[in-house]
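Q: Sequence in, structure out?
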Amino acid sequence: MVKAMIEKHYRRKEVEDLTGLSCRQIYRLMDQGEFPRPVKMSANIVAWKESDLGSFLESRKPVAA
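A: Exactly. Output:
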């Protein structure tokens, strides 16, 4: 039997630290459809999935010339 892996989620401050983006930049990019949206964890808590952040960061890597 294969167990489902539980994905890590990051709160906003952790996302800022991981991406180097400010809160304002994160929400501006979300409005432009360029940054992943968080998931609702509870009534007052949202967090970003590690896989979504990984994909975003991978897409932002400079391409070698």
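The mean pLDDT is 92.
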